[in-house]
């Protein structure tokens, strides 16, 4: 039997605020609400670092972050209020692009007997792509909610969701996924 979880990835205020689509957050919010109604666990994945960012020093991508970014107390690091977690939902902190990198996500999922991941998040070419690839290597079944993801480059988003992701995942829309839960 398949046990699914909805991953809500990098929907932190500083990241969501960079997306020009004002209609973005209602889509993952609908997925979260539907998952909760159907009893599908919702797992939030966030990027987070210690004060001083000691874990970023070797990373060309993350070492350039401003001091204090994505640390406790950074208002931009909080999960966007449109998709805020409930107190009983897991929040996993990662240290790199993939939701699995530097986190205990695999332990949380395996502890819940989860074998199917439904992916939503920002950005399609970042956390979604990296998580999909690593999750496939870890033998998870995968679904990507294409309109529950977003990218600064719409063409990159289109190529990934239309051509790359279908090789390893079912790609659908938030509304189609919700309809399948009923």
TrEMBL record:
Signal peptide annotation: none
Please report the stretch or stretches of sequence annotated as the Isochorismatase-like domain: 4-175
Identify a single GO molecular function assigned to this protein: hydrolase activity
Matching CDD domains:
cysteine_hydrolases
**Known EC number:** 3.-.-.-
* Gene3D superfamilies hit by this protein: Isochorismatase-like
Q: What keywords would UniProt list here? A: Hydrolase
InterPro entries, alphabetized: Isochorismatase-like_dom (IPR000868), Isochorismatase-like_hydrls (IPR050272), Isochorismatase-like_sf (IPR036380)
Query: Which enzyme class, named as a word?
Result: hydrolase
* PANTHER family in the cross-refs: ISOCHORISMATASE HYDROLASE, PEROXYUREIDOACRYLATE/UREIDOACRYLATE AMIDOHYDROLASE-RELATED
Report the protein name in the record. Answer: Isochorismatase family cysteine hydrolase
What organism, scientifically named, is this protein from?
Streptomyces salyersiae
The beginning of the lineage is:
Bacteria, Bacillati, Actinomycetota, Actinomycetes, Kitasatosporales
């Amino acid at each position: 039997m398949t046990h699914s979880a909805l991953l809500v990835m990098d929907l932190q205020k500083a990241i969501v605020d960079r997306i020009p689509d004002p209609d973005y957050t209602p889509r993952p919010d609908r997925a979260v609400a539907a998952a909760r109604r159907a009893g599908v666990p919702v797992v939030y994945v966030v990027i987070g670092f210690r004060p001083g960012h000691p874990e970023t020093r070797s990373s060309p991508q993350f070492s350039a972050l401003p001091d204090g970014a994505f640390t406790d107390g950074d208002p931009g690091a909080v999960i966007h209020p449109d998709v805020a977690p409930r107190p009983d939902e897991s929040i996993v902190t990662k240290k790199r692009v993939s939701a699995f990198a530097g986190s205990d996500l695999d332990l949380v999922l395996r502890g819940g007997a989860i074998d199917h991941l439904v992916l939503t998040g920002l950005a399609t070419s970042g956390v979604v792509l990296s998580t999909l690839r690593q999750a496939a290597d870890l033998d998870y079944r995968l679904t990507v909610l294409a309109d529950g993801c977003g990218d600064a480059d719409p063409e990159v988003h289109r190529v990934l969701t239309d051509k790359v992701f279908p090789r390893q995942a079912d790609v659908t829309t938030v509304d189609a996924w919700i309809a399948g839960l009923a």
